[in-house]
Design a protein that fits this description.
The chain starts with 7 loop residues before the first strand and ends in an 11-residue tail after the last helix. The strands form 3 sheets. The chain has a two-stranded parallel sheet with strand order 1-2. It has a two-stranded parallel ribbon with strand order 3-4. Strands 5-6 form a two-stranded parallel ribbon. It is α/β, with parallel strands linked by helices and 124 residues long.
């Protein structure tokens, strides 16, 4: 995306710097989560601090090693979705044999379906 001229904003508090050095990449050493804290920014803060526009083609790509479920349960997707035309998730811990966990996961997926249309899924 950066090579195609898009502005890329990377968040990751678990590493010291961005894995790629590119003039279109801004690295912020914080996690993205449901709430602000010393090492985490909420989606609302990400939108405000980067002056994201509802009219831009913003894409969120999220790979946060199983924390995505908790965040998606807590955030207001209705408030966030106007700023992100696409959201790409790598979902972890999807074991259909675990009925209790699968029920929780299904509720999160139904929440996403209110605002987005899934275009690809597979077990990893």
């Amino acid at each position: 995306m950066a090579n195609r001229g898009y502005k890329v904003i990377q968040y990751d508090a678990s590493i010291k710097h961005a894995p790629y050095n590119h003039p279109n990449i801004t690295f912020i050493k914080k996690f993205v989560g449901a709430h602000d804290s010393h090492d985490t920014m909420s989606f609302d803060s990400v939108i405000k601090s980067n002056n994201l526009s509802k009219d831009a083609h913003n894409i969120a790509q999220i790979d946060i090693e199983d924390a995505e479920w908790d965040i998606l349960e807590k955030i207001d997707l209705g408030a966030i979705s106007p700023y992100f035309s696409q959201m790409l998730f790598e979902f972890h811990n999807c074991d259909p044999r675990d009925e209790a966990l699968s029920s929780r996961r299904l509720k999160v997926l139904e929440k996403i379906l209110e605002f987005y249309t899934p275009i690809h899924t597979h077990f990893n």
